[in-house]
Specification:
Length: about 300
Amino acid sequence: MSAHPLPTSTPAAEGVDARGVHAFLDALEGAPDLEPHSLMILRHGRLIASGWWAPYTAERPHLLYSLSKSFTSTAAGLAAAEGLLNLDDPVISYFPEFEAEITDPGSRAMLVRHVASMASGHIEETVDRAFGLDPEEPVRGFLLLPPDREPGTVFAYNQPATYTLAAIVQRVTGQSLTEYLRPRVFDPLGIGETAWLQVPAGRDLGFSGLFATTDAIARLGLLYLRGGEWEGERLLPAAWVDEATRLRMPTEEAMVNGAGPDWRRGTASSSGSPATGTGATGRTASSAWCCPSTMW
């Protein structure tokens, strides 16, 4: 848990009906196919409800599964802002050692922005094939798989796309994602202990594998909800927040078991009115949902 707790308030003080919170909790606990671990609800930047179901605690890091991707996306945005990578560079330009082997025009046309948005041109998940082709260097395995369509024209949930983005960030920064994010995002946000699974050793997995607390998820969501600012300091360029969360192409038909892009857009009901928001999601319903229309 952070050494600097988020400010707290009550639902009523922030314009939220506490009965709705109780009804939501009752629904969670009453659903036979759900196993709640934790919940934090914030409005106006204040924590108005939180809880952990045993054996989970506020201090215990959770495996975030694909919610890890939104932290990887954040690292990519920072690296781009620092001039360390360019979204319009070909992916292959960051791996010159594979230049002679990667001959397919589609693979060579794949840009960093394509892997950042899971629009590599593949029409299905390639994780088993990519890691099977080259377990020691899955980026090579991925690039050896010719895209089915022109990169940038179709979305498919595809773990190696985010893995490749993570590899690029770690290559241009000379640091793991954890090391790179620590002084730029984790420490300023007050995020405590984190850990990331590595494949191969020394390279954070990127598409999954991050262990962090529920509080860390809430802080990342709040950072994006605030347009990249935190306590008067700009941590993320506003342009990157917009780029990371804007709608690019339809993704619904490509969803498999709830999988989707690093940040997802959707609409829910708020006081009888639609509330549009953005969410980072992962397996087992790990998620951070941000609704700007209900923020104020």
